[in-house]
Amino acid sequence: MRMTRQRKLILDELCKAKSHPTADEVYKLVRPRMPRISLGTVYRNLDQLSASGQIVKLTMGGGPMRFDSTFPQHHHIRCSKCGKVDDIISGPNIKIGQEMVNESGYELVGYKIEFHGLCPRCRKRNGNKEGKPQSSARN
Ligand SMILES: [Zn+2]
Ligand SMILES: [Zn+2]
């Protein structure tokens, strides 16, 4: 694959961003450095980068498609309340995965684990509400 300047810039920004941006957000990230780039170009480059394995598309919990660099290899956890996606660097590795599928006779080449929970911010918000009795909402 030919690495155009646009594609390199998109890859650069994705590697820097820890936020797992959507295509729209990637567009906003690259625009300051390449004001004439179009959203369509961003979409096309994201597609090509993911087809060549340099980035991954994340479709988690039915939310909007997000993009991420593949290095270092990591898992993801998604907040089931606000949709924020964070990295989990340490997690099950391919060896453990192979042990789990051994009985099926498959050779494991990859797997996808999706964690979900409450992010620290949502946990705090939840904590604030806990003081109130549940039955306070009367109709
Ligand atoms: Zn959250
Ligand atoms: Zn990630």
Characterization of the model:
The protein has 139 residues and is of the alpha+beta class. 37% of the residues lie in helices and 15% in strands. It has five helices and five strands, in the order αααββββαβα. A three-stranded mixed beta sheet has the order 4-3-5, with no helix packed on it. Strands 1-2 form a two-stranded antiparallel sheet. A hairpin with a 5-residue loop joins strand 3 (75-79) and strand 4. The longest helix has 13 residues, at 39-51. The termini are far apart. Residues 134-138 have low confidence and may be disordered. One zinc ion (ZN) is lined by residues 79, 81-82, 84, 119, 121-122. One zinc ion (ZN) binds at residues 20, 68, 74, 76, 87.
Keywords:
139 residues, 5 strands, 15% strand, binds zinc ion
What is the end-to-end distance? 62 Å
Radius of gyration from the CA trace? 19 Å
Ligand inventory reads: zinc ion
Strand coverage percent: 15-25%
Average pLDDT for all residues: 84
Morphology: flat
Structural class: alpha+beta
Q: Name the poorly predicted regions.
A: 134-138
Largest sheet: 3 strands, mixed
Q: Please count the helical segments.
A: 5
**Considering DSSP H and I runs of 4 or more, what fraction of the residues is helical?**
25-40%
Strand order within the widest beta sheet? 4-3-5
How many β-strands, per DSSP? 5
- SSE topology string: HHHEEEEHEH
